[in-house]
Write a structure and sequence with these properties.
Blueprint lengths: L2 E10 L4 E9 L2 E7 L3 H4 L5 E4 L4 E4 L1 E6 L4 E2 L2 E2 L4 H10 L2 E9 L6 H12 L6 E7 L5 H13 L3 E5 L10 H14 L2 E5 L3 H13 L6 H6 L2 H18 L3 E3 L5 H12 L4 E5 L1 H5 L2 H4 L21 H10 L4 E2 L32 H11 L4 H15 L17 E11 L18 E11 L2 E4 L24
Parallel strand pairs: 1-4, 1-5, 6-9, 9-10, 10-11, 11-12, 12-13, 13-14, 14-15
Antiparallel strand pairs: 1-2, 2-3, 5-16, 7-8, 16-17, 17-18
Helix pairs in contact: 4-5, 5-8, 8-9
Length: about 475
Amino acid sequence: MSRTVIRGGLVVTASDEMHADVLIEDGRVVALAATGTPTAESWTAERTVDAAGKYVIPGGVDAHTHMELPFGGTFASDTFETGTRAAAWGGTTTIVDFAVQSVGHSLREGLDAWNAKADGQCAIDYAFHMIVSDVNQDTLKEMDLLVQEGVTSFKQFMAYPGVFYSDDGQILRAMQRSAENGGLIMMHAENGIAIDVLVEQALARGETDPRFHGEVRKALLEAEATHRAIRLAQVAGAPLYVVHVSAQEAVAEIARARDEGLNVFGETCPQYLFLSTDNLAEPDFEGSKYVCSTPLRPEEHQAALWRGLRTNDLQVVSTDHCPFCFVGQKELGRGDFSKIPNGLPGVENRMDLLHQAVVDGHISRRRWIEIACATPARMFGLYPKKGTIAPGADADIVIYDPHAEQVMSVETHHMNVDYSAYEGKRVTGRVETVLSRGEPVITEREFTGRAGHGVYTPRSTCQYLL
């Protein structure tokens, strides 16, 4: 039996803050006791971690990543090995990535392919959502089987006609099935048919620069699709999780649905909270670094997103980590913004950026842990194994220095991409030590983990329903 004690830190979870020591045995938390009490003082262990002056927080749960995703004739530049290592550096100890069903193929083939990519490669624990690209009777039956196996969420796209797109009938059928089997439909809510018209028209006018990516993917078309997805889910009697919400009009649709008592949830991402169309407009094709979908919005949308996070109209902050190098990948879209691979790197930056939001007064400390750890774990059936520090939970724990200052840069990050979306940004707070199931993955700013430590983690159904 291996034992670790973390001593002297401020333990912060979504519900509590207390100066406590944490006892870990065989990869799990077995007890917490107030620092300095006889109970805590009596604990002995092979490994002692000094957390004095630091926060002791649950490892982050990033419920939206795309390692090795094929897109636009290329692949996301992070492998499961490099991407999960970078996640650990940033204080994230669980990712939920997306297995992809290709049109004409089964869900099982897609899931098997992604299991093969990840198996033996991950530094931290991982799970999968399933992208449903081809809704038919066989697919619907497979959804039932996957839920029973612990793949309990299914992503559909109202965008990307000809690639991932589902029409309203396909979406409704999948939602009806998930209403029966307990699965959760995740929706990329943009009106892809209308967007394609606007793309074609913009290119015909010679509007080819990266900034036009944001201009054609209009906020109103995100809001319209969000509204439509909500009403289809209401017809089906199914819960709905809207991914990467970027526009204030879409937040308003989600808030309205929640006011009606519907099981509708919203996720946003750091890029929408900290970046804007100003980045997309950077000269010399630099704006291509910031091309993602949904797109970055004008800065005035940020206030609505922060407000949504405070009022719980938005429940989760994930990264949608999908990195493409500037050289050789983003450059595929020189002269045609529609050919720029869509995606940003961010899996390493999320916990630090959200701590900066605490420093800046946007959210509280406990809300930081709620939106980055506890709620994603509950939303996707991983709680209380993940997302908290409590007896019985996996010992996925981060020692976080709230006073350390750092400058985000490609020079110092660990993601396998040749730029940082937050280059030069100063933030307060930094990960010092990371345990994954009790094993040190980052030890005082040194990587001590290994590929293959991370294990596949089946999930129960959504634990966040009204």
